[in-house]
Amino acid sequence: MEKKYIYVILTYIIMQLSAYLALPFLPQIEDPAAFTVGWSVVTFALALLLSLYLLRDEIKEFFQLRQKKIGSIVLWSVLGFIMVMLAQYAAVAIEALVFGIPPGSENTMNLSNIARQSPIFIMIIAILGPILEELVFRKAIFGTLYKRMNFFFAALLSGVVFAVVHMDFSHILIYTAVAMVLSFIYVETKRILVPIIVHMSMNTIAIIAQLSIDPEELEEQMKQLNDLMLILIGG
Questions:
Q1: Mean pLDDT by 10 residues, the chain (235 residues)
Q2: What Å distances lie between residue 77 and 141, 159, 198, 205, CA to CA?
Q3: What are the residue numbers of the active site?
Q4: Contact at 8 Å (CB) between 33 and 118?
Q5: What torsion, rounded to 10 degrees, do the Cα atoms 120, 124, 127, 132 define?
Q6: How many whole angstroms from its chain centre is CA 65?
Q7: What angle do CA 63, 69, 75 make, to 5 degrees?
Q8: Rounded Cα distance, 42 and 49, in Å
Q9: Rg of the chain, C-alpha, whole Å
Q10: CA dist 111 → 115, 125, 166 (Å)
Q11: For residues 209 and 221, is the Cβ–Cβ distance under 8 A?
C-alpha cells in the first residue's frame, strides 16, 4: 500500500478515536450534546482536508485531464444511485426473509435523532462523511486490495470493513452490499468522484426522509413493516 493511502487511513482512525479526547471536558461543558456535535463536525472536516491534501497529486491529475468525461460521470452517478438503492432493498429483504432481522437501522435512527437536535450534524451525514469514507474505503482500502486480488474478494473484504466500522452488526449485509456496489462503480468509472456523488446522494435522501417524518409516525411505520415481514416469513 502506498504511503499516502496509509496516512489517509490513519487520519480516519485518529479522527474516530479523537472523540475520546473530548470525554474529560464533557463534565465542565454546559451543553455536552452540542459540544460533541461540534467536535465531530470539526474533526471530520479536518480529517477530510488532510486526506485531500495527501491525495492532492491525484486531484491535480483529474483537473489536468483534457477529457474529464463529465457526461459519463453524471450518467454513472444516476445509474449508480439506482444500483445502490436496489442492492440496499435486496439486502433488507434477505435479512428479513432469510435471517429474520427486522428492517430499520438503529444506527440510522440515532444519527437522525442527533440531526434533529443539531441540524449542523447533517453536514457529516450528507457531505463530510461520504467523501471521507469513499477516500478511505474505496480509494485506499479497496483500491489497494484490487491490485492484489480479483474484484469480488477485494470488494467483499473492503465492504466488510466498511460495515464493521459503522458498528451496526445486525445489518452488516446491507452495508457490505452497498459497499460492493460502490466499489463496482469505482472500477467501472475509474473516478472516485462517482461513488462519492452516489454515497452523498444516498445519505442526503435518507436523512431528508428521516427528518421529514415525525419520530412517532416513523416508529409506527417501522412496526407495520416489521409485522408485514413476519407475515411474509410465516411468523
A1: 92 90 76 84 95 92 80 93 93 84 72 84 91 94 93 91 82 89 94 95 87 63 45 41
A2: 21, 19, 6, 14
A3: 133, 166
A4: yes
A5: 150
A6: 28
A7: 130
A8: 11
A9: 19
A10: 6, 8, 11
A11: no
118, 216 contact by CB (below 8 A) = no
Cell representation of residue 77 = 452517478
Position 212, amino acid:
S
Angle in degrees, CA 47, 167, 222, rounded to 5 = 120
DSSP string, the chain: --HHHHHHHHHHHHHHHTHHHHGGGGGG-S-HHHHHHHHHHHHHHHHHHHHHHHTHHHHHHHHH-S---HHHHHHHHHHHHHHHHHHHHHHHHHHHHTS-PPS--HHHHHHHHHHHH-GGGHHIIIIIHHHHHIIIIIIIIIHHHHTTS-HHHHHHHHHHHHHHHTT-GGGHHHHHHHHHHHHHHHHHH--THHHHHHHHHHHHHHHHHHHTS-HHHHHHHHHHHHHHHHHHTT-
Q: The whole model's pTM is what?
A: 0.85
Cα–Cα dist 85/76, whole Å: 14
What b/e readout covers 188-199, taking b as 16+ CB neighbours within 10 angstroms? Answer: ebebbbbbbbbb
